[in-house]
């Protein structure tokens, strides 16, 4: 499998704070990779460096063989807060990325409607964001990030603001969307269950300065369902990720 993104000996210093220390891992093309780790271990900073919004202090991130040195265009981003434009309809928000890219929105309307259907948003095409629940807004933001089939999607704790039950449903909705698009995804989460359920690979980071503590390949068959959560192999993967996080914590 070819590699889409390579993180090579990446370090980031903010003044006297070493946020990331010599992190290395790779993200295979068309795979779903999660980063888990305690608060402050540099997960968001790593995503910002991957998007070209922040410069590394040492090492590098390469996207399709090219070192990222400035903002990259061919990327979809999903943040904790869905940041939809309140005056636009939900469909209009999803199509906005096409317009921003100088493309004809009409050419993407069919795909936008398909993504909305997969995300359980059929019937809400003409609704404004304030008429949607938080989970629905975030599903719309994910559809928007996937619309143009970017070579990389970065997601920073996209379900962090949602309640536990909605969050679990969102995980399955994201899986459905991802299986349709097979975008390369780098996903940051605090949830071990979410990381193991969604990912091909889970990267476990230790507390600040963020170091890679473990890289766990999750070779559970897809599509994963709520039964997967009870599969002993799932439970063993989740335990290994938890051990990685806790082992890192005892170092401090
Ligand atoms: N612009 C900045 N200036 C100074 N320090 C920063 C800046 N951005 C991040 N940091 C510091 O770098 C460290 C890593 O921050 P980052 O937000 O990447 O962590 P995180 O793992 O995403 O945390 P959380 O899980 O709480 O979102 C923190 O100690 C933070 O205070």
TrEMBL record:
PROSITE patterns: ABC_TRANSPORTER_1, ABC_TRANSPORTER_2. The keyword Nucleotide-binding applies. GO terms for molecular function: ATP binding. Coiled coil: none annotated. Residues 5-232 form the ABC transporter domain. Pfam families: ABC_tran (PF00005). InterPro entries: AAA+_ATPase, ABC_transporter-like_ATP-bd, ABC_transporter-like_CS, ABC_transporter_ATP-bind, P-loop_NTPase. Keywords: ATP-binding, Nucleotide-binding, Transport. It comes from the Bacteria. Belongs to the ABC transporter superfamily. This is ABC transporter ATP-binding protein. It comes from Bosea rubneri.
């Amino acid at each position: 499998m070819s590699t889409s993104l390579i993180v090579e000996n990446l370090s980031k210093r903010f003044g006297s704070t070493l946020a990331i220390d010599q992190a290395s891992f790779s993200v295979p093309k068309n795979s779903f990779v999660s980063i888990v780790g305690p608060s402050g271990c540099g997960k968001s900073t790593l995503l910002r460096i991957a998007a070209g919004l922040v410069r590394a202090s040492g090492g590098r991130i390469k996207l399709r063989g090219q070192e990222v040195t400035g903002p990259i265009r061919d990327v979809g981003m999903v943040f904790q807060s869905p940041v939809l434009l309140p005056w636009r309809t939900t469909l209009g928000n999803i199509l906005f990325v096409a317009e921003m890219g100088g493309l004809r929105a009409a050419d993407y309307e069919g795909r936008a409607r398909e993504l909305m259907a997969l995300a359980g948003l059929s019937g809400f095409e003409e609704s404004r964001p304030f008429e949607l629940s938080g989970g629905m807004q975030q599903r719309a933001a994910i559809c928007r990030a996937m619309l143009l089939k970017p070579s990389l999607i970065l997601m920073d704790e996209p379900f962090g603001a949602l309640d536990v039950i909605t969050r679990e449903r969102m995980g399955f909705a994201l899986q459905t969307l991802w299986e349709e698009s097979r975008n390369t995804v780098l996903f940051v989460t605090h949830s071990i269950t979410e990381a193991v359920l969604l990912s091909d690979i889970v990267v476990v980071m230790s507390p600040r300065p963020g170091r890679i503590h473990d890289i766990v390949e999750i070779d559970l068959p897809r599509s994963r369902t709520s039964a997967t959560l009870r599969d002993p192999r799932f439970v063993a993967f989740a335990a290994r990720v938890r051990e990685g996080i806790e082992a890192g914590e005892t170092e401090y």
